[in-house]
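User: I'm new to structure prediction. If I give you an amino acid sequence, what do you actually give back? Let's try with this one:
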Amino acid sequence: MQNTPNQTPGDDRVVSVREVGPRDGFQNEPETIATSDKISLINELGQTGLKRIEVASFVRPDVIPQLSDGIDVLRGLELPDDVERMVLIPNSKGLDNALKVRELFDAATLFVSASESHNKANINRTVRQTMDDVKAMGSRVVSEGIKFSAVIATSFGCPYEGKVPMDRVLDLAEEFAEAGATELGFGDTTGMANPAFVSRFFAEAIRRLPEVEITAHFHNTRGQGLANAYAALEAGCRSFESSFGELGGCPVPKGSTGNIASEDLVSMFHEMGVDTGIDLEALIAAAARVQEVLGRKLTSHSIVAGPVDWTGALMAVDAG
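Assistant: Good question. You get back a string of structure tokens that encode the predicted 3D arrangement of the chain. For your 320 residues, that looks like this:
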């Protein structure tokens, strides 16, 4: 990776950036994106250097019709062999359906909300009911040789209950780890995190779960997404989820806007001298393409500004 003037000498940190836009992003769009467009966009993302893309969900089609073509999307993908295909599985019925096409994906995400109110609003179950189901599903996922990734939503605050105790979140994380999860993602589902708390949270998560990969998933609802990602990085986190074009959000409650843009996150890391293994220009091009498909401008800054240019090629025009 080429050094930039902002790089800290000796800063050789490497992070993984995981793309969730084709699932977390597309499911929140008011319109349904054509299957062929989804396949084309995901294949384009697969050429950017991303090593994992969340591509589909096994949620009931009547609940999230935008993702009802998930199996067709999976069948149409042509991704490099080293790109992991991740799917979201909400419950045991979803897992039954997923295992019928086991050969089409590499990893599965199971999830719960740390907040009782959000969990009930989101999937109409208590946290304990969800965790009991998750443990049973986790055993099946592991037995099938599928990578088991867990996500805890509302890890940094709930719009219904307010503060969510850190210990409650990390206790759930430990339950997931005991059930076989090798990765734990902590979601700022409605954009309530702040950098100071994020720093303390990830330091403690890494301390309590030393054998599990810890992933940060931030939303930009209140404009603090990149600041929170920086705080997590400084606390030792080396895995991040984001969405190209800043697509996404949370349907419960209304007003929860998108994830941090993958291209903005990668741009920040590169300017800091942090290696992602991703071709930023190719990622920006993919984000611009989804903007064309949707027919509207997205909120990603890098789509507009592009990568930072350190060559000085942009010269001022002499008005005289």
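You can read the tokens as a compact description of the fold. Here is one thing that stands out. The domain at 16-305 is CATH 3.20.20.70 (TIM Barrel).
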